[in-house]
Records
---
Amino acid sequence: MTGLWLQVVEPAPVNHPTIGSGFWAINIDSVLSSLLAVIVTIAVGLYVARRLQTRKPGILQLALELAYTYVRDDLFKGLAAEGDEEVAKRASFVMPLALTIGFYILIANYLDFLPLHGLIHPANSDLNQTLAMALVVFVTVQWYTFREQGLWGYLYRWTKPFEMPLLARIVFIPLNILEDLIKPVTLSMRLFGNILAAVIVIWLITTLVASIPYVGPFFLAPLALIIWKGFDVFFIGALQAFIFMLLTIIYFGQAREGIHERHRREHAGQPDLVGGAEHS
C-alpha cells in the first residue's frame, strides 16, 4: 500500500533540483518543463498551419481563429476608430506576440494534466519563468512607447491625469513611474501565485485523501485528483493564460497615452505649463 500511496500523492511543488547556487542557480525541472511547453506550442502551431481549411475547419483551428479574432478586434478597435491605419500597421507585431504568449502559457499550465513526476511540472509555478515573460512584455512595451512618442512623449505620459494643469500633475509623476515599474512584478506574480497555489492545493488534497485507510489511495485520492484537476488546471489554467494575454494587449494600448492630449493642446495653442482647462 505504501508504494501505491507514493504514486498517488504528487511530490511537494516548492523544491526544485538546481545546478549552481545563488543568483546563477538554474532550476532543472523548470527548464525542462519550459522546453517541453515550447516544443508542444511550436508543434501545435505547425500542425494547425499545415492543416488549415476554409470550408471545414477543425475544432483546434476554430479555437485559434477565435482567439486571433478577439485579439485583433480588441487591439485595433481603438486605432480603427481613430482612422490611423499607419499606426495599426506599426502595432501589428503585438498580435502574434500576445497570442504566442497566451498559447504558450496555456500549454505550460496544462502540463499538470500529464502523469509526469519529478522533473516535469507546470512551468509557470516557477517565478523565474513568469518574471522572464513579464520582463519581455515590459521591455517591448517601453521600446514601442518610445518609438511611437519619442523622448518627450515618453516622458509626458508620466504626467497624467492630462486634464489637470501641469503644475498640479507634478505630484502624480512619481506615482505614474511607480505604476510603470511595478507592472512586470504584478504580471509575473499573478500568474506565478495562481499556478503555484493550484499545484500546492492538488498536493494537499491528494496527500490528505490518500492517507485515508483502504479506500484513500485506491479510490478516493485518484478521484479527487481527477475532479480537482478538471476544474483547477483546465479552468484556472486557461483563465490565467487569457489574463496574461489580455494585460499584454492593454499595456501596448496604454503606450499611446498622451498623444491626442498633446495634439489637442498644440492645435488649441494652449501651453502645457499654463493650465488644463479644455478649449472648445
---
Amino acid sequence: MRKNLPVTDRERVVKPGEVILSTTDPKGRITYINDTFVQISGFEPDELLGEPHNIVRHPDMPRVAFQMLWDTLKTGQSWIGLVKNRCKDGGFYWVDAFATPIQRDGALHEYQSVRTAPQRASVRRADRVYGLLNRGVPAWMLLWRTPGILSRLCAAGALAFLAAGWVLHRQAGLSWPQLAEAGAVGFGILALAALVATWPLRRLVRHARGIHRDIVAQYVLTGRRDDLGSWRWRSAWWTTACRLWWPASTTRPSRWPAWRAGPVPWCRRARTR
C-alpha cells in the first residue's frame, strides 16, 4: 500500500457546505477534480489529474478500511465512511466520503467520490479505531456485533420468567415441573410477540446489511455495533444518496432512479460549471 510521507499534525478542517468532488477511471487514476479538492489538498490540478487517487492517502488510514471500501465497490454497491487524507504539505483533512461505481452499458465506467465535512464525534471515533487497527488489532475483535434487539428481548424475557418462577416457588410453593410447563408456554407467547413487534426493524437491518457489511464504517459513523447502528448507517446512506441526486436547486423526479447510477447527474452539472 502506498505510503505518502512526510506528515505533520496540521489539520485543514473541511467547512460545512464544502463539497470535494473527484472521479477516477476503473484503475483508480484521477480524471476529474473540482476546485475545492485543489484548495483543500494543496495540490495543483496538473499534479492530480492522471495520477492514482491514493496520492492523497494518509499513512494513518488502515489497510483494512480500504479493503472493506474496495470489497463494497466491487460488488456494485456504494460505500460511505470517514477517510483521513493527506495534504501536499504533509497536513491532513477528514472527510465524510461517499464513493460510487458507475456502470455504463453493463461495464464499469468510473468511480465517483463526493466528500463533505464530517461530524467531529465521528472523527474522534475514527481516529481511535483506525489507530487500533494500525497497531494490529483485528477488526472482528475490536468491533464485534452486539446481539440484535430480538435476542435482547428474548434474553430479558427468559430472565424475567426465571425470577418470577423463583418467587412463585418460594412464596406459593409451586413445584419446578409446574413452573417449567407454565414458563415454556409464557416464554413462547413472549417470543412470538417480540418476533412480530420487531419485524419492521429487523427487515430494515437485513436491507442495510445487504447494502454493506462494513462494521468499521458503521461504528465510526454511528457509534453503534448493533441493529440500531445498521439502521442508522442505512439512513445516513440514503440521506447522502438523496442529497446527491436531488440538490435543492433541482426538481425531484417523479420516479426513483436506479440507486446504482449514484450521483451522476449532480457530478455532471458540477463538471460543466
---
Amino acid sequence: MVIYRLSSDHRFRSLHLHRVLAGDESARIPQQLFAGDELVADRWVPPEVGYSLDQLDPLPECCEAAVYSADAPGHGEKEMPVGDFPHCWGINFGVLSRNSMEALRLLIGPYVEFLPMRSGDGDFTAFKVIRFVDALDVQHSLIDWEPRRMRDEGCSRIIRQVRKYVFQQDKLANEVIFRIPQLSTGFKVFVTDVFVRAVTAHQLLGFQFQPVCPMPDDRERFLKKRSRNGK
C-alpha cells in the first residue's frame, strides 16, 4: 500500500473568495472551522467563489502573485485549464467540481463533511475530512519539532514539519482518505491507492498525489545525504 499526500495541482485554475478579495473582512472563514474532526455545517455560510478576478477593479495587490502575470501568454490564470479539484485561496478544505463530486461522493462520503459553495463559474462543493487515524509512526518518522518553551512542558509537542512519513500500515488497511491527529490544522490530508484509482478511473483532473510512504527512492537518498551533512 502507498500513502499519498493530497493537494491541488496548481497548473489548473484556482478559485478565489471574491468578497474577501474585494476587501470584505467579514467574509473570511474562521480558522477554527478547519481544525479537528468537529462537524461545522451549522456554522458554515456558503462562500461566493469564482475563477475570474475581472470584477475586482483595481486588482488587490495580494492577488497579483496568485494570478501570476495576466499579460504573459501561457502564464496568466485565464490561460490555465479548469480542473476537478481546484485550490481555493482562503479555504483549508478540499473543493470538488460537479464531476469529481459525482464520481467520489459515495467513496469518501463516510469520511468527510460536504459543505456547499456559491459560484457563477460552476457547481463546487467543499469538504472537510473528519476521519482521523492515529497511524503515524512517530519514532521512525523524520520530524522537525517546534521548540518547547518552559510554559509548554505540560503540553503535547507540536510538529513543525515531517520530512519523512512512516505509517503503521496495519492501521490503514481499510482507509480511503484520512488525517492524522499530529497534524490537525490546515489541509493536511492523506489518501490511499483506493482513492487514487478512483480519480484515475474517472479521468478527473487537477488532483496531485505526493507519495509519502513508502518514500520514493530519490527522496530517501536526498534525506540520508542531508542527514549525513548535518542539515
